[in-house]
């Protein structure tokens, strides 16, 4: 039995429900047929294909086509790791670039001793202190970021800063140094060359005996090596000692490292670069030649 007015009442009720729930009633097509079934959009829920909220602030993620409603969005991928800056110089390196680094560290009062051109323990500690003061990783190695920060705070060092006091570039090798294995020591330039068959393998700054205890000149040979030697006359440490003439030896000097050319030895050839002389001590053999000249 049909009740007059019933369809109109039902239609009105459906419209009210649609307005209340946010439903979308598909309109009739051109052929008079109704479209797809009614799509219900609950209040506060995104529609089909709408952008879904992202757990990352400021990032919007869109659900891919065909993803069922309510499917959680995929978590954001982890950010790629930032590579560490390249290391330019580290302990054991030598050369003019290391000398400039040391001169710049002296300008900002992180290194007390003069440039040696060898990346030694004091240089590593100075770099580590500089890095820590500026919030950089305290590695002790000079990477590109550390170097750029240091360059921004300093000026290009002059020759007097690169070769302070009496330290100078190595003089030409004495002709007696051009054959065999030789510790070629020049009083003119205050340098020591370690040479093998005329080729210089390493160079380091040295100082000599004081006025009343001069270092002897001439051609000698290494007759004894003592890694942890202590002087029996002066009771002072002589690490990495390589004796060549009586009690005179090439050895590391803590005083030379601390005071530079302000002091002098009792006749020995002092080296202030501990890393360099440790390497030299390992290479020199008993019987190797020593040439000390002006």
Structural summary, described in words:
The longest helix is centred in the first third of the chain and has 16 residues, at 6-21. The protein has helices at residues 6-21, 96-107, 121-133, 144-153, 159-162, 254-259, 274-283; strands spanning 51-52, 61-62, 87-89, 142-143, 181-186, 191-196, 199-207, 218-221, 224-230, 237-245, 248-252, 269-271, 289-293. With 294 residues, the protein is of the alpha+beta class. It is built from 7 helices and 13 strands. The strands form 3 sheets. It has a 9-stranded mixed β-sheet with strand order 8-13-5-6-7-12-11-10-9. A two-stranded antiparallel ribbon has the order 1-2. Strands 3-4 form a two-stranded antiparallel ribbon. This is L,D-transpeptidase family protein. It holds the Pfam family YkuD. The active site is at residues 251, 268.
Summarize the structure.
This protein is of the alpha+beta class and 294 residues long. Helices cover 24% and strands 21% of the residues.
Overall mean confidence score, pLDDT: 79
Number of continuous helical runs: 7
The H-and-E topology, N to C, reads as: HEEEHHEHHEEEEEEEHEHE
- How are the strands of the biggest sheet laid out side by side? 8-13-5-6-7-12-11-10-9
Query: Rg from C-alpha positions?
Result: 40 Å
* Strand content range: 15-25%
Low-confidence stretches: 14-43, 49-63
User: What does the largest sheet look like?
Assistant: 9 strands, mixed
Number of beta strands:
13
Shape: elongated
What is the SS-derived class?
Answer: alpha+beta
Helix fraction, binned, reads 10-25%
Defining traits:
294 residues, single chain, 9-stranded mixed beta sheet, two-stranded antiparallel ribbon, 21% strand, alpha+beta
